[in-house]
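Severity: low
Component: inverse-folding endpoint
Summary: output formatting inconsistent between runs
Steps to reproduce: submit the following structure tokens with default settings.
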């Protein structure tokens, strides 16, 4: 097992207007005064588990080994869903077992899944705010040195979000839009390591729109065209210069994308 550090990250859909994020920090620091708390984001769209999972996966590997990542995007709060701690190769993930932890967990390699005891002298379930009454205390106690065995019992697995992969048929890659970022750029499930460098000829989008490969975002300036380039996560991203492609073209998660490859 990797030794937990005092670093705790927060990924939530709480926003910053209502004091929910601040309450989490206060609870953690009350239990673990030496904790180093870092916000990944509190701007996940309300109840958007998939967006939370993607943001967590993007950020988690950039933190030092032993970091405790607390993620709460929890439309099922107060229900039957379990709370879990996932031990991966390099860090611990704490949150509801609804898929929000799954992308980061599988990316780093799952070593152990612990189902959190619903109620102890250290934490208890809530009708509406398990982030404060369960997950923050669990993360804080782990940062303060609590053993994983004291948190709960081993579970067989965790709830995982589906991760559809782009499928190749000859010189065509059938893909889809996974999500859009705050700039309105559309992120697809086409992975850079699936293709040889320079293999893309053009990209076909719904409603007859065509995107052309480019090296970077700034190349689109003044062109008015849709570009396709590899983003920092190694995924094919679609964009218009300083415009939201999601709004202008109505692209949404699940929309089909066809990548036409150059003839060999």
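Observed output (run 2 of 3):
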């Amino acid at each position: 097992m990797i030794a937990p550090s005092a670093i705790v990250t927060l990924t939530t859909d709480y926003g910053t207007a209502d004091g929910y994020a601040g309450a989490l920090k206060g609870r953690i620091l009350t239990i673990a005064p030496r904790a180093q708390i870092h916000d990944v984001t509190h701007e996940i769209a309300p109840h958007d588990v998939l967006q939370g999972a993607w943001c967590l996966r993007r950020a988690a590997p950039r933190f030092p080994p032993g970091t405790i990542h607390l993620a709460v995007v929890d439309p099922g709060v107060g229900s039957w869903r379990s709370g879990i701690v996932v031990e991966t190769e390099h860090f611990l993930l704490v949150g509801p077992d609804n898929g929000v932890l799954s992308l980061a967990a599988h990316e780093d390699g799952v070593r152990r899944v612990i189902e959190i005891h619903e109620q102890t002298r250290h934490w208890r379930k809530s009708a509406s705010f398990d982030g404060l009454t369960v997950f923050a205390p669990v993360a804080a106690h782990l940062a303060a040195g609590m053993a994983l065995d004291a948190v709960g019992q081993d579970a067989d697995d965790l709830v995982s979000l589906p991760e559809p992969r782009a499928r190749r048929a000859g010189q065509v890659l059938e893909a889809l839009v996974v999500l859009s970022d705050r700039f309105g750029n559309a992120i697809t499930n086409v992975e850079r390591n699936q293709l040889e460098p320079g293999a893309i000829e053009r990209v076909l989008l719904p409603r007859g729109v065509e995107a052309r490969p480019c090296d970077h975002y700034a190349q689109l300036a003044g062109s008015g065209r849709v570009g396709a380039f590899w983003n920092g996560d190694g995924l094919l991203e679609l964009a218009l210069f300083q415009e939201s492609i999601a709004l202008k073209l109505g692209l949404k998660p699940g929309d089909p994308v066809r990548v036409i490859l150059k003839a060999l």
